[in-house]
Amino acid sequence: MDIQSQVNPHPERERSAEHLIISGGGGAFLHPTHIPSSNLTSNGGTYEHKQCYPPAHISRRYAVLNVFGFRRINWRFDAIGGIGYFAMVFSMFPRCSVGSIYAAATYWEAAAQFCQELVHLLRDMVTTSYVSLLCSIGMLVGMIGFADCTTLPKRCAMGMAVSFTHCIAAFTILLVYECLLEVASVRGSLGREGEHTLYLFFSSTLPDFSAIRQYDIFGLASLYGDFMRLCMAIFDVPEVVALHRNKICASGFDSLGRMELWTYYASLFPYFWVLATPVVSFVFGTYLYLSLNMFGCHYNEAFSSLRIASYKNFLRLHFDKEGRLEIFAFGVDKMPRRWCRDPKRSGGNGSRASLERNLPSFKWTRPSYWKRLVTKVDNMLRMDFENPSLDAKFNTTDRSNVHLIDRVLVRKPASAAT
């Protein structure tokens, strides 16, 4: 909610101030209040910004949640981000040349080799890949269309910057993943014992049950063996990935059959998805935060992703006996999430009802059927972003009460009074 007063273009004339009150605090989520400028032009007049609810510093602190809390609030975004990142690097698997990073003598040399391999990845994506290049172009077009800019050049510049950042992040995750596999393969932890390693170890520790096979009329023993082989193959996915990767690096993709190739990519996806989802959420949340606070755009997307249900506000208008208009702005800092029936309702069967039964409902002291149910624990567990040092996060004060934000008095014009 914003309260603004009109700037008098003719100060030599006596004129009462005109107020522009923008109250939209009953929506699904909170919108930022630190983005509007200090002056606003509307209906041919210029209005000076006087007050807003919540204050601008509170709105600015809530915007930081996009950086650190975007994934926690929008956990379904993991499906889009993880699949999108995997599609961008699909054609780049495997990177057999990451062994130079592991073989580097110093950390600085390893970092230089890592950056060089990252540049080679970008070059190979443009020159040799198909799926990765197509997905990168699709992301570029999508980011340009999503950018909240007024002109096409700005939209293209912002879309290109964000798309390039996502590409760098996805390829960095790919290199980290490949480096882990390379280290495990070189040290002999993976890729040496072949497929179904866990099942073979499990079978070698069991006694020989071949003597009772003649009593297995329904063939359950073979089904049990196949089932255990399948279950242990799921937990033996890193060994399968390392084994197929070593084959590809040694003899190329022709050394794998079609089913082995699909098994290789299917085994890659879960581990890459776990690494990619936190990064893609962090990159996208940071993009929303910077767009909002530095460029003043994406104010709708940046706060709709936070889904802040608090800071509701509403107006009440009242004419006094002198004909003046009083405008009261009320606000609720924290919206309650639980409700219960009010046993002391004025229109019920309690003692209060007998005293107020003959009064009109607008004079009842407790007219509602329901009352909020807010405990001290509920208030204590709420993070208080109004305090810069966050010292009030254990504050048990009930902040779901309606309180007065501001009061505006509009006097009757002199011509109307006469």
Topology readout:
Blueprint: E1 2-6, E2 19-22, E3 39-42, E4 45-52, H1 56-63, H2 65-68, H3 70-73, H4 77-88, H5 99-102, H6 107-127, H7 131-146, H8 152-186, H9 197-204, H10 220-235, H11 237-251, H12 258-295, H13 299-304, E5 312-319, E6 325-332, E7 339-341, H14 351-356, E8 370-372, H15 376-380, E9 403-410, H16 414-417
Antiparallel strand pairs: 1-2, 1-4, 3-4, 5-6, 6-9, 7-8
Transmembrane segments: 79-105, 125-146, 158-177, 268-290
Keywords: Membrane, Transmembrane, Transmembrane helix
Describe this structure in words.
- The chain has 418 residues and is α+β, with helices and mostly antiparallel strands.
- The protein folds into two domains: 58-194 and 239-304, no CATH class; 310-410, no CATH class.
- It is built from 16 helices and nine strands.
- The protein has a four-stranded antiparallel beta sheet with strand order 2-1-4-3, with no helix packed on it. It has a three-stranded antiparallel beta sheet with strand order 5-6-9, with no helix packed on it.
- The model has no long low-confidence stretch (mean pLDDT 81).
Brief characterization of the structure:
By secondary structure, the chain is α+β, with helices and mostly antiparallel strands. The chain has helices at residues 56-63, 65-68, 70-73, 77-88, 99-102, 107-127, 131-146, 152-186, 197-204, 220-235, 237-251, 258-295, 299-304, 351-356, 376-380, 414-417, and strands spanning 2-6, 19-22, 39-42, 45-52, 312-319, 325-332, 339-341, 370-372, 403-410. Keywords: Membrane, Transmembrane, Transmembrane helix.
